[in-house]
Amino acid sequence: MFNHIYGIDGLATRTPAVYDNFDVDNANLSQRFSSSGQQWAVSEAGGQPPTIRDGVMTCDANMYASLPYPVGQLLPRISARISWAPVAGGDGNRAAASFTLIGSAYSATDGNVLLNLVHLQVTPDGCNLEVTSTGPSGFVPVPGSPISWKIPCITDGTEYSIAIEFDYTGQIVTVYGPDGSVTPLSVTGLGTVYTPYFGMWQITGKTNFRINCYEVSLGRTTRREVLAPASIVAPLYGDSFSRRTFFTTIVPGTTSGAWFRIGTGIAWGSGAGFALAGRMRLSANDGHDRWNDWEFDCTSSSRSTYTPTLVNRTGVALAVDSFVAISAARLTLSSDRVAFGLDLQVAPGASGAINLSGVFEGYVSLVQNPTIGAVPLGGPAASLSFVNG
């Protein structure tokens, strides 16, 4: 049901959009104008230019490709939607399977292209942010980097989003990871020493994995949809809400009918309160004869006016005789509305460990190693039973 799950795509800004969704087949990137009208500049190694194949940008060798932002304007944001897939005969070296987001003072065909860079190298397991104003030999590590993803990316062609945003006043680069993480990093000299006027994307080739790129953008995201229902999140976060957090976990020692906690509350806004709000999409099985996918909405807040709410959207019982692995959800708050818990119930009759995966679109802190035995927190609560259909 969830064959394509997406990482966080940042918070949409209202700045000029430069983007390309590669809406052609079998084209040479260096001869292309982007979807928003800018011409690509391309520098490749080994005589193998990047191409667009079936609506996807890819390359068999190391390459740099850049798009210009409006003249004289520093980039506010760079993003991409990518995937990794195995290559026949590859050695599976995930650390070498890198895709890089670059803010550069120069285009990819300029002789100074590597002179002045904000450089985020991304692999399936994490990323590393560095800067230079003197070329590749002068890279300076950014404090707080490298970053390991909380949940490593799957390398089977699953699509993920990655983005960086620039705050030139505060000299902060914020990394939006494919695992839902948001990491602000201090970069002294951002906007003065390091001046990204061009957005650039680097693919290192297909030695270990083929890296496909489905969409790139500068300025704002082109994915403008509100992922969690506006009726739930807009009062808390506004209509530009966009946050995704992935999870893949095993709940060991499960007991038929028992509850376990999968999520807790998280700070929202500028720290004015806490909430657990958004849309849960999960797939669960017990490794035997029970399997179901389930999508539901939930909202709770430290604001006293918000009553915990769970709303069913879609449920699919995938096993024979409609046996399911997860049968109910519960959203519970403490009496002082400081603690939050999102609980799931093991279906009566389920046996063995519960294999659980999915994505939460909204504000939540996921429990990485849930254990059986969660109890209500003593305050307002809501419950929801799985419905097939």
Brief description of this entry?
By secondary structure, this protein is mainly beta. The protein is 2% helix and 45% strand.
Give a verbal description of the structure:
- The chain contains one helix and 28 strands.
- The chain is mainly β and 389 residues long.
- The protein has two domains: 18-218, Exo-inulinase, domain 1 (Jelly Rolls, Sandwich); 230-385, no CATH class.
- The strands form five sheets. Strands 3, 6, 8, 9, 10, 11, 12 and 16 form an eight-stranded antiparallel beta sheet that branches.
- It is globular.
Characteristic key phrases:
single chain, 389 residues, mainly beta, Jelly Rolls, 2 domains, 6-stranded antiparallel beta sheet, 1 helix, disordered N terminus
Largest sheet: 8 strands, antiparallel
Instruction: Tell me the overall shape.
Output: globular
N→C terminal distance: 13 Å
Q: What is the β-strand count?
A: 28
Task: Give the integer mean of the pLDDT values.
Answer: 81
CATH fold assignment of the largest domain: Jelly Rolls
String of helices and strands: EEEEEEEEEEEEEEEEEHEEEEEEEEEEE
